[in-house]
Amino acid sequence: MASIGEYGLDINSGAIASPNIAEDFMSYCGPRWMSIFTNNFLTNIAQLSPQVIPSGSGTAAPRMIEDEAMNFERDERIIEPLIHILGVIGVDGEIEVKSVARLETRYLRGNGRQTGFVAQLLDGDRVIAEDNVFGYESEGGTAKTPASSPDRRGHGKRRCAECGGDDREPQPVLFKALLRDAAPGTTLRIVKRGEVVWERRGADKPPRFNGASATLNDGGDLCLEWKLEGTATKGANIWVRWSNDDGTTWHALTVDQRGGSATIAAEQLPSGSVRFELLANDGFHTVRTTTDPVALPAKPPAVTILYPGPRARVYGDRLIHLWGTVSSFSSAAIDADGAEWFIDDKPAGKGLDIWVENPGAGGHQVRLQATDAGITGAATNEIEVLGERDVSFPG
After folding, report:
1. Which parts of the chain fold into alpha helices (H)?
2. How many whole angstroms separate alpha carbon 379 and alpha carbon 370?
């Protein structure tokens, strides 16, 4: 029934979670905690388990140990031209491709599992690039039926958490493939055991941009306009990125824009002098263009208090853990020492992860603030410090 299975201790506040009332956070119930089952599952994941290499003594190895064996895994640190394919494997095993885009990115497989499908790029009848199609479990669901791994047909099944059994109900699976963009090619396809299950041929000529502009309206929103020409412009999907270093680094802004214009709300925009890049994906080709620089108004940094949370209850006889994050809308680095904490408007300390003296029992206001480009941003949470009579232990 989603019980955590044993008592738990919150090292931030000293609070004790009882297995009689606390429930595993994957059950979407509360009060939330991590169960023995989830802890053991994460412990046994290879990606989270470092391998210890013995040095032959009780001290550190005197030299670097290198593995000269052939590496069959792609290097995920390299940014390279890739063909990014996203879609869904239906419960009947059919392939539905949702998006095809060519862009410079990293080969990020994540926790995807092989599905038995293979994506290929062809030039005529010759395969010039291919990659495994990786399936990804759904992140949603309920306590009764969390998603499980893809089965032999490539789709997932649901498992009943209450009875511990498998009701064998199939579920669609998201998939991703990343092909090397070796050449324009003529055909994209997905095969399984040599059989073509999906295929798309590119237009003779890719679409092309005939102008693009970026302006701000009276409300500070960004107005993008563009014009596409060519035979493959109908239904083209527009992605938008921004750069404040003349294109050395690009940051995602929005996707799935259609037609010839789009309006982006001011709160979603960065700040400073920014160029915008528009990428038009017609389902096979990707073409791009860049706007002239636009001067966006300065904005306060984004400030978030991670702990203590809103209306958190903390013990009165212990130090209080203050933990937060700060980020700049101009992508500039903000010094952690520039972040300042206040409790009831009184300075409590500087830094993003600190421990401070307890203000005493009762309600208090915790505030974190930081300044970027002369503008200050802040976040505030109300907390309750427990007195001796408020503290109770389970059992």
Report:
1. 36-43
2. 9
